[in-house]
Amino acid sequence: METESLTKPRPTATNFPRTTTLRNKLGYALGDVGNNFLFDMGQLYLLKYYTDVLQLPSALAGTVFLVAKIWDAFMDMGVGTWIDNRQNIGPRGKYRPFLLWAAIPLALLLIANFSIPNFSVTGKMLWAYLAYMVFGTCYSISNVPFGSMIPTMTRNSQERAELASFRQAGSNLGLMLATIGFMPIVNLLPTDKSGYLVAVVGFAVIGVLCQWGAYANIREVYTQPAKPKATKADIQKSFRALLKNRPLVTLCLVNLFTFSAFNLKLTVQVYYCQYILKDTTAESWLGVFSIGMVFVAVALVPLLTKIFDKKTVYVLGCLIWAVADILGFFFANSTVMLVILTSIAYLGDGFTSALNWALVSDCVEYGEWQSGIRSEGMVYSAFTYFRKLSQAIAGFVPGLVLTWVGYVPNQTQTATALLGIRGLMFFYSAGMAILTIVVMHYLYPLTEARYRQVLTDLIHRRQAAPTPVPVNH
């Protein structure tokens, strides 16, 4: 392993070297294809599996998501703290090995969630709670390191935006394929129970292969020596630093809004297609066109961020999203109109989703600049903590509302139930997008000019001491 000379002139914030190849970016995208094959099955189809296959009451089934995701949120923080303070870091890197180690356990646990035996309601609920909570813990061990890697792959701000876009492209490719392919597989089998199991096994196997492919093609370019073993006081100091990181706190808050809206829409759309449009094939069309529109957003984001601040592009995406969903509530009465308006909404959502991973990497640098503490794992896990809370909301609220409006599985729904499904599908997400615009505009302080100044200050500080440098593997 060769190291760049520390005597070379250090780059400035505006011309930090580009250190990732197309292969690295595609590998990072492939990792999120695998993440979504392993994760989206639960977010998209598990509530319907509970209510329609296991015949669990909707509100009771929704509590599984509430409890499990709150548990996951705390697991993310614990995993982030553990990773930041790992002592034995081998030649594979600090973060990459988790993609290799966690893939198979994660796949087996996903299958267990769709293999609930024909127990009593109490037995089914206990299995559901345990399986989904253990699955979430394993997913944290895989996903927190994966998301923490961007700052170790490049210091170049534009390249980070590109990596974030590649990751979002991979995420949405995985989501699109899951949306298009899952239910047709289920419908091929003689019973829904066997159909769900076969579909989940297929996606789980491919998900493992994608994660291993990502492991083989991602490189951690910037390395740092292992930190001294953290004391309780060190960990407390790191947590206090997180709370003072205003860009991070703001980003966490808006993700609570936007990610709950996105995941709730994914959960509810299967009900919308079946009971309002009476067209179960509509979900596959949504996968092709609506989620496919996010690829357009992913392509546009690097171009837009060359002209505007990331913050401005983020707010623009939420505005597009909100307008499209408000129109959707009133006019999405056919498959064609649903696909068109949801495609526009997902275009706006794609701006926010693609930028999240670049913004959280900027928050790492800001946190180090502000407090002197660099903690990629803890910053990322704080970010995902709120995303997990949003998933808890997205799983719990539909179950609660469906019970409240009188939803009955596999029956003709009342006008009240249909209105509840329509409101969940459109008004909730539109409201969350508007709230995000307000919070992001007034509270997020990190413009591009501000970020460049922060990074320049950090560069000057590091000149007096050894600093992470690119290495050739």
Automatic annotation (TrEMBL):
Q: Which domain of life is it from?
A: Bacteria
* Annotated transmembrane regions: 95-114, 126-148, 169-189, 195-215, 248-272, 284-305, 312-332, 338-364, 385-405, 425-444
Q: Which InterPro entries does this chain map to?
A: MFS_2, MFS_trans_sf, Na/Gal_symport
**UniProt entry tagged with the keyword Protein biosynthesis:** no
Q: Which SUPFAM superfamilies match?
A: MFS general substrate transporter
Ordered alphabetically, the record's keywords are: Membrane, Sugar transport, Transmembrane, Transmembrane helix, Transport
Q: Name one Pfam family in it.
A: MFS_2
Q: Which PANTHER family match?
A: 2,3-DIHYDROXYPROPANE-1-SULFONATE EXPORTER-RELATED (PTHR11328:SF39), MAJOR FACILITATOR SUPERFAMILY DOMAIN-CONTAINING PROTEIN (PTHR11328)
What protein name applies here?
Glycoside/pentoside/hexuronide:cation symporter
